[in-house]
Each structure stands twice: as structure tokens, then as C-alpha cells.
Write a structure and sequence with these properties.
This protein has a 4-stranded mixed β-sheet, with no helix packed on it. The chain folds into 2 domains: 60 residues, no CATH class; 32 residues. The chain is of the alpha+beta class and 131 residues long.
């Protein structure tokens, strides 16, 4: 087995906590488990430096973590996560701008400020004169 250079990738959870993260009080970085009366840290909300410092403490700490299929632990500053968040932000901005321009165009058409394509009347049927 390949030895990782990152201490986070070597974390092993010996006995996972049965309490759900959503059932714990706290924020996205750290929550309090009422069953074991411990702080539980979400490594994906910490930077690599913060998570490494936390794991390096002499006492045992409780953590929540996400692993990629290659075994690496995901942290807040991981490049893949940063790229995903950037793409999501760009999509949101593009959607807002497209909506805004669309609404401005419709408003301009209805107020007569810009010339909009007119509806074409349906072609009239030629009526043959009765013989």
C-alpha cells in the first residue's frame, strides 16, 4: 500500500460515532456531540493546515471527514472543491445576468422604448369567387 505524504490521508476511524451530524448543535466547522460530550470537527470545513494542526494534537479528537475514491481527505482548500465552487458561482452570476437582461428587454418592448419583433399576422386565405 502506498504511504501518503499527507497526515490527513492516514486518518483511520476506529469506531464511528452513531450520532448524525445534523443532530448535533454547532456550526459547519465544529459541533457538540451530546452522547459522548465531545467536540466533532468537520475536516471539509477546515483548511489543510488547520486540519493537520488539529490532528497533530496529543489528545484524541473526533472528526467528520470525506474521502475521495483515491483515499485523500477533502479539506476546504482542496483544489477540486475550490474549482467546483468557482464553477457554481460563475453559473449563478450568468443566470442572474441573463435573467436581468431578459427582463430589461421585455420591459423595453412593453414600454415602446425598443423596437421588438412584431407578431406576424397569419396569412390570409385566398377566397375564390363563386362561379
Amino acid at each position: 500500500m502506498k504511504k501518503s505524504l499527507n497526515i490527513l490521508d492516514d486518518i483511520r476511524i476506529s469506531s464511528p460515532c452513531p450520532v448524525e451530524w445534523a443532530g448535533m448543535a454547532g456550526d459547519n466547522r465544529v459541533r457538540h456531540c451530546s452522547q459522548c460530550d465531545q467536540a466533532v470537527y468537520d475536516l471539509s470545513a477546515l483548511t489543510t493546515a488547520e486540519a493537520t494542526e488539529l490532528i497533530s494534537l496529543p489528545q484524541q479528537v473526533c472528526v467528520r471527514l470525506y474521502r475521495r475514491s483515491d483515499g485523500t481527505v477533502i479539506t476546504r482548500d482542496c483544489p477540486a472543491g475550490r474549482m467546483r465552487r468557482t464553477r457554481q458561482a460563475v453559473r449563478r452570476v450568468a443566470l442572474v445576468l441573463a435573467s436581468w437582461f431578459g427582463l430589461a428587454w421585455v420591459a423595453g418592448c412593453t414600454q415602446g422604448k425598443i423596437q421588438c419583433p412584431a407578431k406576424q399576422p397569419p396569412p390570409e386565405e385566398s377566397k375564390a369567387a363563386p362561379k
